[in-house]
User: Fold this.
Amino acid sequence: MSLTPSTMLPLGTKAPDFNLLDTVSSQMRNLNELKGSKGTVVMFICNHCPFVLHINEELVRVANDYRVTGFHFIAISSNDAVNYPQDGPEFMRQNADDHDYPFPYLYDATQEVAKAYDAACTPDLYLFDASLQLVYRGQLDDSRPGNGVPLTGRSLREAMDALLGNKQVPQPQKPSMGCNIKWK
Assistant:
C-alpha cells in the first residue's frame, strides 16, 4: 500500500464523459444518463483499499442522504484486475451487493477514465454541479484508518450543501488520501 494524495484536478473542469460497464446491472452506462439534476459525485474506489473500506459505510450514508435532493453518485474502479483480481468486475458486483451501494459501480478496464479525471488514489472524490463543472475534489472528511476521527462525510456534505443553497463551495479543499490506483 502506497499512501497517495489526490492530484486535485482544477476547479471548473468539465466532467470527462465515459461509457463503462456497470458491474451490478451488467449494462453499459455513461455520464449523461447517470448525472444528477443538482450535481454528480464521481468516486474512484476499489474493493480492497483499507482507506475505501474505512469510508464505505459513510459513502453509502451520504449517497442515500443526498440522492433524494437531486445528487447522483457514480463509483468507478480503475485498478488493474489482472494483477489485482480482487478488483475485477465479478468481485466488484459482490462488493456492491455486500455494502448495499445505492449507486452504480463501474469498471474502467482501459484506465482511460481514471486518466481523464487525473485520478490518483482510492478514494478520489469529485463533485460536479448540474452543468458538470467541477466544484469540489478531495476528501470525504478528516477520518482515516486508525486516526480516531469519526466518519461524518463533512467535507463532501458541506460542498453539496453549498450547491443546494446556491452558495460558494467551501475553500480550501483538502486532498483525499489513499492507496494509489493500480496502473497496468
